[in-house]
Specification:
Number of domains: 1
Shape: globular
Number of strands: 8
Number of helices: 10
Strand content: 15-25%
Largest sheet: 5 strands, parallel
Structural class: alpha/beta
Strand order of the largest sheet: 2-6-1-7-8
CATH topology: Rossmann fold
Helix content: 40-55%
Radius of gyration: 17 Å
CATH architecture: 3-Layer(aba) Sandwich
Bound molecules: 2'-deoxycytidine-5'-monophosphate
């Protein structure tokens, strides 16, 4: 199944901490479009599994959790059953479990329709790993955002410290590399650019420059 409305989608895929989230919300703001933070859905499933003690290898039970998530997003805040869990979702333990359960086909299937439901006029910025390859294969613009592991770890470190969460740079680099490896080598929907994706390396670009490049590519699709 491909996307079911005429509203356009810009997919922004890439490895963890490549700046996708920030770039996606700024591009969405500029265009007046909605955002899908698909990683948040995997993180939410992981968070609920941790809280309810569901076995992290029980694919059927995890898929049921994914299907039943009572969640809504509003102005960058993620509400789970009425509780603001935006900060909890960023914890490394939640991210690591999200990466593990994202390799399970039943979990991915459970989240597929939920992700496509975010599509709405006038358009959607879809941020993730498989937005351009699996979830929105007919998107008119697909960006694959990369940055070297050291730049990404430094950004993640800064984010965590700003939120008052303690962190260690070399542990973060090791975690990022482990997660990249798992995300890009899994059998189902691995992290990889779609054939028609444009790869942007943001290692040496500011957020504003990266946003400007995405918007320029979007403008170019209409010429
Ligand atoms: O983008 P993020 O770090 O919040 O994503 C958390 C995990 O979820 C990541 O390790 C891989 C997984 N994920 C995925 O498999 N597919 C997506 N479209 C988004 C995230």
């Amino acid at each position: 199944m491909v996307s079911h409305t005429k509203a356009p989608v810009i997919t922004i895929d890439g490895p963890t901490a490549s700046g996708k989230g920030t770039v996606s919300s700024l591009v969405a703001k500029q265009l007046g479009w909605a955002v899908l933070d698909s990683g948040a859905l995997y993180r939410l499933t992981a968070l609920v599994a941790l809280r309810t003690g569901v076995d992290s290898t029980d694919q059927t039970a995890l898929a049921a959790l994914a299907r039943q998530l009572d969640v809504h997003f509003e102005n960058g805040v993620c509400w789970l059953e009425g509780e603001d869990v935006s900060d909890r979702l960023r914890h490394e333990q939640v991210g690591l479990l999200a990466s593990q359960i994202a390799a399970y086909e039943p979990v991915r299937t459970a989240l597929l329709a939920r992700q496509r439901d975010f599509l709405q006029a006038p358009g959607l910025i879809a941020d993730g790993r498989d937005m351009g390859t699996v979830v929105f294969p007919d998107a008119p613009l697909k960006i694959f955002l990369v940055a070297d592991a050291h730049s990404r770890a430094q950004r993640r470190y800064k984010q965590l410290i700003e939120k008052g969460i303690s962190a260690n740079l070399s542990d973060l680099i090791a975690d990022l590399q482990a997660r990249d490896l798992r995300d890009s080598t899994r059998a189902i929907a691995p992290l990889k650019p779609a054939d028609n994706a444009i790869t942007l390396d943001s290692s040496c670009l500011s957020i504003e420059e990266t946003v400007a490049q995405v918007l320029a590519h979007w403008a170019a699709t209409k010429n």
